[in-house]
C-alpha cells in the first residue's frame, strides 16, 4: 500500500511539474530550458518532500 501511495505521489508531482513547465514555456522560454534539464532529475530521484 505504501509503495502505491508513493507511486501516486510521484505521478501527480510529474503532472504538476509538466504544468509548471508549460507555464514557463510561455512566460520565460530561457528558464524553461533549464527546467527541462531539472525535470528528469526530479523524476529519477522522486519528488522532494513538500512538508
TrEMBL record:
Keywords: Membrane, Transmembrane, Transmembrane helix
Highest taxon of source: Eukaryota
Parts of the chain that traverse the membrane: 20-45
Protein name: Transmembrane protein
Amino acid at each position: 500500500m505504501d509503495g502505491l501511495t508513493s507511486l501516486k505521489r510521484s505521478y501527480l508531482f510529474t503532472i504538476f511539474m509538466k504544468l509548471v513547465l508549460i507555464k514557463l514555456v510561455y512566460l520565460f522560454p530561457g528558464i524553461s530550458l533549464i527546467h527541462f534539464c531539472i525535470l528528469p532529475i526530479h523524476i529519477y530521484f522522486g519528488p522532494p518532500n513538500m512538508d
